[in-house]
Amino acid sequence: MSRKKAVITINYDWCKRCGICAAFCPTKVYDTDNSGKPIIKNLDACVVCRMCEKRCPDLAINVEEVK
Amino acid sequence: MLNDLKQYLREDKLKHILCSGCGHGTIMNALVHAIEKCQLDRDNTVIVSGIGCSSRIPGYLNFNTLHTTHGRALAFATGIKLADPQLKVIVITGDGDGSAIGGNHLIHACRRNIDITTIVFNNNIYGMTNGQYSPMTPVGSYASTAPYGNIDRSFDLCKLATGSGATFVARGTAYHVTMLTDLIVKGIANDGFSVVEAMSHCPTYYGRKNKLKSPVIMMEMLKKSALPLTAFEKLPAEKTEGKYAIGVLHHEPAPEYTKEYDRVIEIAQKGAN
Amino acid sequence: MIEKKTRLLQGNEACVEGALAAGVTFFAGYPITPSTEIAELLSLYLPRIGGKFIQMEDEIAGMAATIGGSLAGHKAMTATSGPGFSLKQENLGFAIMAEVPCVIVNVMRGGPSTGLPTATAQGDVMQARWGTHGDHPIIALAPYSVPDTFYTTIKAFNLAEKYSTPVVILLDEVIGHMREKIEVPDHVDGIIDRKSPEKSPEDYLPYEAGPDQAPVLAKFGSGYRYHVTGLTHDFTGFPTTDPKQVKYLMDRLNNKIEMHKDDIIEAEELELDDAEIMVVAYGSVSRSAANAIRSAREAGIKVGLLRLKTIWPFAEKHLKKYADQVKAVIVAEQNQGQIVYEVERLIGCQAPVYAENRYDGELMKPEQILNRIKEVYRNA
Questions:
Q1: What is the CATH number of domain B2-229+238-272?
Q2: Is this complex's ipTM strictly greater than 0.90?
Q3: Which residues of A touch B4 (CB under 8 A)?
């Protein structure tokens, strides 16, 4: 079974470290560091549902599907 | 995907002034997605707001934008829409701006059924001025002007809009973003006055005052409190406490105001000749 | 040759005729005595020319929608009276700050509060000047007859468009409701229309003013996307708290009116050449004053009238011209004394300034002013 592959870009200049992307990711792609900064921990798990992108209050996340 | 939406943003003005985790940011995100889906022409779209946290959002959107006085966005927007019905007009307002100081304009815009889509960013509080209670603060909640708990009963904004004659009324939340985007798309598509109440959260003031310690906890609240209309209607009355329905709550077409005014022009011009 | 039709019109009707001649295509307002004829007539006439009329839910909304109509490219106006003028003040300030051209007619009635809805007064001249909060310039015009109302209304629209600013017309109830003969021309020259930006949308900066200090605001929907806010903003239109930019904007707003005072200010000087007493009056009172100075002249008193047609900015030059010549000044007003303080401030050290007032709802008659002229003459 071929899984979707993603490229996730986080604009850290706009990101305010609220943790919403990490908390609600259904496949636990994200972790956060001590400052709350989102880190992409497990990109392979991403299913390109784009919920992090859509819920991001700072419009700081871009998710692209790699074909 | 977000990269495709950048044409709708004034990137040089971002990042925005909203607090970390503010639900308004998410709703703005959903609005931009909805605008993309509707393929709104940037030159032909006017976004109007009043005063408050949500009302600062037009400044970040790459359209004709108008940041007016407190509560009056709909009155300015009505002037714009009537003056040039070719323009798509979207109003961004908050629970204080839209239901307190601007409540009269809201019900009359509903009554006229003028083709404006209004998104009410409802975070149950006056965030810009440090968290005073609004007409949408739940009874029992704390606010900087309700230190002993709020005793004011709150509006059901969607019922208010429906009762006042809005032809499209919907409620969504900052958690249910896909649905919210869809509701805004439908609101924009409605040829008449549309109200989308977007349930938001204010971690900085409402959250702190009411022991909801993080934006994540507040988003969980939105997830728990909101039920799709059909599920909500099946709940026994005693179980509806603290819950609300989301989805399209009312949609009933009626003659649109500027088109009716075109008829007035036609009659007046016939009479004059 | 300009064709003229002689008609018998009310001041309020002449205001409507003037607005139409000036090119008004948008009206938003709320019913209030004694201004209602203006709204009623425009609800009839505007759709005939493809224009728009809307009766809003309140006075505040009337002002807001007027500004909205203007931003969408229309020549826009509203009409009201004292209580409504009070309610409009915040959005009037918005129009000043955002530099949106529009015309606000205030048919003055007795105040304060509900006061005397059907009686005349001139109690709103200071409210016109300082009714909205914060430092700001304002243009306020006060016609004295039905024909003058026609031309003053045209001038109001012209100034609004030229300087991208709201203009207030202060009619008093007597002027609004009296009927006079007026020749309404079919065509009026010198109508000023909204400028369009010279720059491309990419280079356009909405609040980058030209040498005349007035910005050129593109009509919404014309391809120029920009931001309009009541917050203090820089030349891009976006909010700023940078002290330099704040001061620049405040200065420019003020200079925009100050530097064009000669263009804006109009006053009539009647029999002032050899006058020893100067009467200062405006609106309906200036008619009684004109009558009074004629009678006084017949009685051998050298008296003249300075009739203010522009109230704000104040006709300082006109006033000062006679400051050294006259022995006394009488300021006749249908209020407890408002403009008199402005006169005192400007020439009070050169000549004694007396206030002659009436504020019981009845119009000030020539005899009252004549008696005061005689009294001042005896004591001078």
A1: 3.40.50.970
A2: yes
A3: none
